[in-house]
Amino acid sequence: MELLITVTLFAFLIWMAVVIGRQRDLFSASMLTGIFSLICAGLFTVMDAVDVAFTEAAVGAGISTVLFLATLALTDERERRPEHTPLAAIGVVALTGAALVYGTLDMPAYGDPSAPVHTGVARHYMERSWDEIGLPNIVTGVLASYRGFDTFGELGVIFTAGIGVSLLLSAGTPELTPGAPPPPPKSRAPYVREMPILRTVSKALMPYILLFALYVQAHGDFGPGGGFQAGVIFTAALILYGLIWGPSAVEAFARRRLVERATAVGLLIYGGVGVTTLTLGHSFLDYSALSPEHPQHGQHWGIFVVELGVGITVSAVMLVIYYVFASRPKKDVSPMRQPLPLLGGACVGDVSTEDAEADS
Amino acid sequence: MNLVFGAAAMGLLVTMALAMFRATVGPSAYDRISALNAFGTKTVLLIAVLGFLSGRPEWLDLALVYGLCNFVGTLAVLRFSKYGSLAKDELASAEDEP
Amino acid sequence: MSAVLDALCVVFLLGGTLFTVIGGIGMIRLPSFYTRCHAAGMTDSAGAAGVLLGLCFVAEPLVAVKLLSVLAFIWLTSVASTHALVKAAYARGLRFYDEQPIDLTNKRPQPGAEDRTHKRSGEEE
Question: Which of A114, A336, B68, C118 has the highest local Cβ count within 10 Å?
Fold first, then answer.
């Protein structure tokens, strides 16, 4: 039964990949990428990797689509037809793919208990995790305690990506550079009441999304969840706010400088736990130093604080990326800027209801 | 009981295939947005059914997340199609309208 | 007692799946965008209700509460998305009888079923 579902989902994945590859209209392509992410998340769930599926769903279904569309606002919306047929590229890719497939023929079967990956450290983790760490979710134990240093590096990578994006995309616009003083507030125009249904639904949903983010942060010890997923969901709630009320409304709530500093605070919390255990006489990130008579409690505390740091940094980095992408003013990139290819060439913002009724 | 869950999962996969067909073919971009919306909801239902099929109902947290994030993605698409960018401010747009 | 609950679960689950598949078929066969939106909305509301309520009958109480909250979120968000989508399409000028049904049997191009997304104002690709 599960084999059938897995095979079907993989077939969907290939189908979607072919369709996305053939699309010239980048708006449709970015939406189809959302479907692709959902299929990937379904596959991860069927193969029992629920934490990964969680992150893929949160990032792929919400944030990726937002960022793709923010990029589309700055560039053309149709891909130019390539001038040459890339036969050499196709040949190289096909050869490499065939070599990879040939390499997988030698791999052990999926789930084979005598495979090297199952007889090494993984067995130690599964057998000793309950005694040493005491958490029902072994994945969180491995992520935050056994492989805590790797996770520290991952958090550093996320932080670097955030400041890299921020520096690259705010070049040339002094008000967007990190550390710049906040722009003067816009004048308070009369409140435009559009989209009443979406406003009401978003207002009703946002507290629950934020609460759910906190739940996921705290529940990572017992079920799928943890700091990464919680950070992404928290920012998804703020992006929802920004999509309805505009990015400056989000900036009024979470000021850009505060968020930029928060990206570093999470990383410092994580490193701070490591330095604390060092000064207490144990190795870096050895959480049992935090409570010497009950090493399990030390592990719980260490994992809690470390996941908090992860959540803060991930959420702040995603928010910084959203700020940088969404507040760039729309520019005319090319002289032949194509009108929005949704219906018959209507241009952006030039169809009002009265004109549309006069047409038909 | 597992058989019924399996049949429901198969039905949901069939619907996902039909929605993907509409996403592939749909003449206008709005058809694709509608198919994306339907696909997201079907994924939520598939996760719930699969959780019961494998005896692990903790996967419902996943379903909740999908439901919420799908909404954010669809709203971004609609806001983009209406304004052409995500940067239009509610307060500023009142002064820009003629 | 548990046999009654199992029977209820089967009925709701299969009914929900049936609505979902019917909505899916509608998404392919119906002639215009607004009718297809209605079919997609049917999969989201009736199909989701059937499947999730069916699963409630065989779940523990806490899991049943989670299932009901998933159902509430789906009803709230996907209905609002469909509304926003239809409103945006109408504001763009898409009208009800704008498309012909897609003919899956023969390959002759239907009159009026040209691909409107690639029309430019007199511009060649």
Answer: B68
pLDDT digits (tens, 9 = 90+) for B35-86: 999 999 999 999 999 888 888 777 888 888 888 888 888 888 877 776 666 6
Euclidean distance between CA atoms A311 and A226, whole angstroms? 8
On the question of pLDDT at A248 being above 60, the answer is yes
Q: In this predicted structure, what is the pLDDT of residue B76? A: 83
Q: Name the one residue in this structure whose structure tokens are 């499947």.
A: C51
Q: What is the pLDDT of residues A31-46, one digit of tens each?
A: 889 899 999 998 998 8
Token pair in block for residue A233: 């969901």
Mean pLDDT of chain A: 81
Q: Find the CB nearest A342 among C84, C90, C117.
A: C117
Q: Which two tokens stand for residue B14?
A: 């069939």
Residues from chain B that touch C79, judged by Cβ atoms under 8 A, are none
Query: In Å, what is the CA distance from B62 to each residue of A225, A315, B57, B67, C115?
Result: 9, 19, 10, 9, 37
Task: Please indicate whether, in this complex, the C-beta atoms of B94 and A38 are within 8 angstroms of each other.
Answer: no
Question: Could C117 and A343 be called an inter-chain contact, meaning their C-beta atoms sit closer than 8 Å?
Answer: yes
- CA neighbor of A31 nearest in space, from B90, C117, C72, C47: C117
CA distance C48 to chain A (A): 17
pLDDT band at A187 (very low <50, low <70, confident <90, very high): very low
User: Among candidates B76, B91, B68, C118, which has minimal Cα distance to A72?
Assistant: B76
Cα–Cα distance for residue pair B85/A73, rounded to 1 Å: 5
Give contacts of A342 with chain B, Cβ < 8 Å. Answer: 28-30, 81
Alpha helix positions (H), A105-185: 116-119, 121-132, 138-141, 148-169
> Across the interface, do C116 and A353 touch by the CB < 8 Å criterion?
no
